[in-house]
Structure formats: structure tokens, C-alpha cells
Amino acid sequence: MGDVAQRTEALIERLAAAGWLTQASIKEALRDVPRHVFAPPVAWTGEGGRVRKRSAPEAWLDLVYGDDALITQLDDGATDLAAGAGHFTSSLSASSTVVSLLELLDAEPGHRVLDVGTGTGWTAALLSRLVGSENVVSVEVDPAISERAAANLKQTDVSPRLVVGDGARGWTREAPYDRVHATCAVARVPYAWVEQTRPGGVIVTPYAPGFGSSHELRLVVMPDGTAVGGFAGYASYMMMRKQRHPEWDPSGRPAERTTTDVDPRTIGYAPAGADLAMGRRCRACAPGAYATATPTPCGSGGRTPGPAPATSPAASPSRSSRAGPGPSGTWRCRPTSAGSPTAVPAATDSA
Length: 351
Ligand SMILES: C[S@@+](CC[C@H](N)C(=O)[O-])C[C@H]1O[C@@H](n2cnc3c(N)ncnc32)[C@H](O)[C@@H]1O
Known about the structure:
Rossmann fold; binds S-adenosylmethionine; 13 strands; globular; single chain; two-stranded antiparallel ribbon; 9 helices; 351 residues; alpha/beta; disordered C terminus
């Protein structure tokens, strides 16, 4: 098989040149836990043909060390990956989005990290390199995927704790955490993540409100049980189970047609904040209403290299939701107005 070290260096160079990757510790982690260890034997980006490790090892490595997400599961495992059609429900995320979220996380040696959405185990392995295996707990909702991640991790010298359970509940047993890192997108930030993070700790998650683009959300937890932060860029990820948006089927749905003077290009090319404000407004005026975005395989998108774009939605803070745009370009996460935050039953530990 071709030179993995060379391919890793080339990947690091490309990510750095594009502005995704600046931190030396993340570069080191990429060298220490090579991506191909976590890649499926039949690599498929969700488009085009499948490339088999056995019959085309060089082409397989090229794909693995490119910057595409590789699909590892369809329809929560109900459809065989070879079938070629289905909803993408797990993947080895694209390198650029992985490093982009890791840079935002700013994890340091010794930090306790909760990783949500183990998938192939690659991000759990990278985090283990950054903070030490003993400090990483990675939660995956799908037992079969967690099992495969465990097998992948056995080929490395890191050993994060793997847990099978609903990552929305966090993992109380080893809380509090310094960092929460999610690689499945949420439309509502689970309050358990705030509860299980120490004041000053950081939560980084893809945020997909169901309108327009998906965003990288970075929150800092406050001593009063809230979390405040902003949007650093785009990040397209698979949705967390239970938070998936319904399929959009316009047939038979009540609809209203209106006209506007707004040039669609002003919306199409508007900054991220416009998306967020509109998404918020859609839900505020018509609960249950939503708009679709073009689905993309997990892990595409990512932060625009360079200064983070403005993220200030003009809408007022939400009254009862757990996340709502604040007046100064921040996003605030707090318990619902209904009272205490959701109870956090422990997930099942499979490790
Ligand atoms: C894009 S993949 C994660 C990629 C992974 N970090 C990697 O490096 O390969 C998203 C994963 O989130 C998992 N997931 C979805 N909902 C979840 C939940 N409620 N709790 C934990 N994991 C969840 C999916 O099963 C899927 O494996």
C-alpha cells in the first residue's frame, strides 16, 4: 500500500493552506492516528462509484486522504451499504470539518472531553491524542457502529472510553467535562451538555435548525447554568437521532403563496446570520413549519477560512426554547421556561 505518512503530510498541508488547520497539536494528532485505520474497506463518498481497498488500494487511499466524508451506514443500518440508495446515517467525517470543529474546541492535555457521535472512532482517537485517552468518553447511539469503532481503535495506541447510549443525555458518570464535542448536528442543544460541563468549559456542535445551512456552534458555559456563544462557520453533519427534521413533502400540505420585492440573490448569498434569523422566524410564526436545505453528506462544508463571519441575527431572544439568538450576535442555551432542565438518566455503558 502507498505511503500513508506522505499522504497524511499532504492532507495536513492542504488543510493548513486552506486555512482550516493552524494548531500544531492537531497536526500531530493527525499524524499519530492515521485516517485510513477508520475508513471502511469499501470507500464511498455518497456520490460516484465505490472504491475497494482490496482491489484498488491506491485509489482507496487517495479517496480516504481526500477531503470527502465516507459513508459507513444507510438508514440506521436497515439498508445494506452496498444497496446504493438510502439516507446517510453514519460516516467517517470529512477532514476539513473535523479539524475545524477541533480547532474551535481548543482542547488541551488533561481536559476531560465528552465526544458525541463516535461513528468510526476517528474523532475520539484524535481527541485522545490531544487530551489523553483516559480523559475521553465517546457516546454512540448505535451499538453496531460503536462495536466497529472499538475494532478500529484497537489498531491504534489510544483507548478512549466508548459508551452506547443517547448522546443527548451526555454521560453523567464522568461529568463534569471541560469540553463537549459533537459530530452529529442538533437543532436544539441538549441541556444535559450544559449541565455536565464545568463553568468556563466549551461545547462545540454542528447546529442545523432546519432552515438553510448548518453551522458550527461554539458555546461557553457560564456559572449560572447558561451557555453563551456564536457561530463560527458552516458545518454540514448528519442529524442527531430524535432531532432529525421531517422529510419535506409539499404535496397535500397547506401552503400560502405571496410575492416579495426581495431579490432571491440577496437571500442566497446572505451571511450565515440571515439564515439563522429566518429559521428562527419560520418556527416562531408557524410551529411545525420548516424549510429544506439541499442535503449533503456529513462532514462537508466547514468554516470559511479567515476571520469568522458575522453571526448576528436580528431576531429577539427566544422565550422558552433552549437556544435562541441573542441581541448581540450570541446564542444562549438555557433550561426551558417550564422549569428545571431535563433529568439525565444514565446511558448504557458498553465498554
Ligand atoms: C457523522 S457520524 C460521526 C463521525 C465520527 N465522529 C467519526 O470520526 O467517524 C455521526 C454519528 O452520530 C451518531 N449519532 C446520531 N445520534 C446520536 C445520539 N443521539 N447519540 C449518540 N450518537 C448519535 C450516528 O449514529 C453517527 O455514527
